[in-house]
Amino acid sequence: MTVTSLFSRFADHRNQTSLAARLRARRLAFFRHLLARVPRPLTILDVGGTADFWKRLKDANDGVRVVILNVRSEAIDDPRFDTLIGDARDLSSFADGAIDVVYSNSVIEHVGDLDDQRKMAIEIRRVAKRYFVQTPNAIFPIEPHFLVPGFQFMPIDLRAFLLRQSRLGWVPRERDQHIAKEIVRSIRLLTIREMQTLFPEAALYREHFLGMTKSIVAYHGW
């Protein structure tokens, strides 16, 4: 058994007994507690999500409209959902304060560098009456995408080299050096301090494992 396959037993949220699934269940329970306070009808903008998530969550019901914004289209035959192709850094199709709830799970670490992440945060804060934005903690020892301890602290060239050798966590092996570098550069994890800076008015919900913060949620307006 490889190191990454061992860690995947803890990180696979599809396995309901895994650590990731248990932490996600607690996080979603907290989100649903907040959502229950919001008067209906309401509109939720899910930045970077999928309709399948909301179907499983079962909170897209009467009085709740879910708009899903992603970089790729999703075929949905369900009147509860609207889909948009868009960029999390540019929500200009929405007016200031137009959205009752903006929800985003594990997306902000994928949009680019810190300046790109700042643009996403500004747009979410602009359009949302309330928001709930989650991201993995940059200083948690195990990188959550590649599932290699300390991977996020390694030089880019070393990370790309390792990805060229084998599959790492959820990321398939990439033999091309240039593409491997682009893949490892495409994920920039955020620290607690950075999340507080990007969302200065937000409270932070922290998910803990063995006394360490595994992921962070910035939430505001509830």
Q: What does this protein structure show overall?
A:
With 222 residues, the chain is α/β, with parallel strands linked by helices. The protein has 2 domains: 3-138 and 188-220, Vaccinia Virus protein VP39 (Rossmann fold), CATH 3.40.50; 146-186, no CATH class. 33% of the residues lie in helices and 23% in strands. The chain is built from 7 helices and 7 strands. α5 (156-165) packs across α6 (177-185). The chain is globular and about 50 Å long.
**3D shape:** globular
The tally of structural domains comes to 2
Quickly name the level 1 CATH class of the largest domain.
Alpha Beta
Total E-strand runs: 7
Low-confidence stretches: none
From N to C, what is the helix and strand string?
Answer: HHEHEEEHEHHHEE
Keywords, separated by commas or semicolons:
alpha/beta; Rossmann fold; seven-stranded mixed beta sheet; 7 helices
Topology:
Blueprint: H1 3-11, H2 19-35, E1 42-47, H3 51-57, E2 64-70, E3 81-85, E4 99-105, H4 114-127, E5 128-136, H5 156-165, H6 177-185, H7 192-198, E6 203-209, E7 212-220
Parallel strand pairs: 1-2, 1-4, 2-3, 4-5
Antiparallel strand pairs: 5-7, 6-7
